Amino acid sequence: MQFIRLIRSQRTMKGYRFSIYTGKEKSPFERYLDIFKEMLLYTSGDVDEAIDWLRELDKQYDISGDPSYKTDQFLEDLKKRGLLREEIRPDGRISQVPSARMEQLIRQNALEQIFGKLRKTPKGNHKTKKSGTGDEMSENFRPYTFGDSISSIDWNMSLLNAQRNSEIENFQIREEDLVVRETFHNSQVSTVLMIDISHSMILYGEDRITPAKKVALALSELIKIRYPKDTLDLLVFGDDAWPVSIGEIPYLQVGPYHTNTVAGLQLAIDILRKRKATNKQIFMITDGKPSCIKEPDGTYYKNSFGLDDYIVGRCLNMAAQCRRLNIPITTFMIARDPYLQQFVKKFTQANKGKALYVGLKNLGEIILEDFEKNRIKKI
Predict the structure, then answer these.
(1) 84, 51: one domain
(2) Which of 76, 98, 120 is the last residue of a domain?
(3) pLDDT reported for residue 10
(4) 263 shares its domain with 358
(5) 227 occurs within a structural domain
(6) Domain check: are 259 and 327 in the same one?
């Protein structure tokens, strides 16, 4: 939907002329901030490294578009706006780290990048016979964003905003005046998102962990805004598996780990057993084969060469166990190796779940599309 702005002009037949509303132009700070949020994900939250990257980029591309606005001024503005906080390192030095507000902006940015693209796709990833986005009206309002249904706009509140923001003699409704009343579904879904942090996630010079982090951040923000009754738990798996919080996601780093898929699934099941929702599901983002399991005596059995029958058998048993517990697993395979895809196919058959073979570019769009479809089926 394109918004048209009324502009009072020289006298014409009706006294107005029309032009396409292009939106508010970004300030130098906003231009810097867009890139800085991306850099924080790539540097796993290292502010100093992200600032160093900004300096180099500004030398080549003039990020702000204003020669008088440079990186040092942007850094000061970040501190004034409360987007950075000071933290004392173990060696006694004081360093700058992202504040809670900055972490929220990173989540919102991931949601806009991934879920925003999903809603604008011409393929229609949100096909459903149900109208609207939910069953219950919420007391919360949020700004209108591209892709929202016109019927969801609260016109009373929007007109009030326009009245406040317009001059008396030049009343107009602008895009930033529009607000939408939130709705949510009556059903509840508990989701566990598993993220592979084994060494192969950065192997061969290809960064796969950053897109995975973006997906986790976008999912958390989506559920928080659109599905407040739902739960999302996050865990990472390498040699072992352990839960992580939303706040830890931007700082995740790949370790010198093998891939213990069994440990990740065991932890996911334990988490979902504690959830009261009837509908439960697991999303697993991985780019490699299972190569490690932990034995009952505490030792690790590892094999990085080929698909080990013993490890594969344990993984298939876990997939079947999830099926018996009515927990579908959706595996997002971000490697194109046909040899590994055969394992994923067997794993999916054992669970009666889903498998999507995707590249890094489409990872976020597909995982969010599948999340929406799973919800629709379970309402």
Answers:
(1) yes
(2) 98
(3) 38
(4) yes
(5) yes
(6) yes
Tokens of 26: 């970004």
Task: Let me know whether 151 and 264 are in one domain.
Answer: no
Tens of pLDDT along 123-147? 333 333 333 455 445 556 778 776 6
Alpha-carbon distance 63 to 67, whole Å? 9
- Tell whether 343 is covered by a domain: yes
Domain that holds residue 311: 189-378
Please write the tens of the pLDDT for every residue from 353-363.
988 877 666 67
Number of domains in the chain: 3
Which amino acid is it at 281?
Q
Is 63 within the bounds of a domain?
A: yes
| Whether the Cβ atoms of residue 331 and residue 284 lie closer than 8 Å to each other | yes
Q: Let me know whether 194 and 175 are in one domain.
A: no
The pLDDT of 85-113, averaged and rounded, is 85
**Helix/strand/coil (H/E/C) assignment for every residue in the chain:** CCCEEEEECCCCCCCEEEEECCCCCCCHHHHHHHHHHHHHHHCCCCHHHHHHHHHHHHHHHCCCCCCCCCHHHHHHHHHHCCCEEEEECCCCCEEEEECHHHHHHHHHHHHHHHHHHHHHCCCCCCCCCCCCCCCEEEEEEEECCCCCCHHHECHHHHHHHHHHHCECCECCCCHHHCEEEEEECCCCEEEEEEEECCHHHHHHHCCCHHHHHHHHHHHHHHHHHHCCCCEEEEEEECCCEEEECHHHHHHCCCCCCCCCHHHHHHHHHHHHHCCCCCEEEEEEEECCCCCEEECCCCCEEECCCCCCHHHHHHHHHHHHHHHHCCCCEEEEECCCCHHHHHHHHHHHHHHCCEEEECCHHHHHHHHHHHHHHHHHHHC
Could you tell me the pTM of the whole model? 0.68
Mean pLDDT computed over 102-107: 88
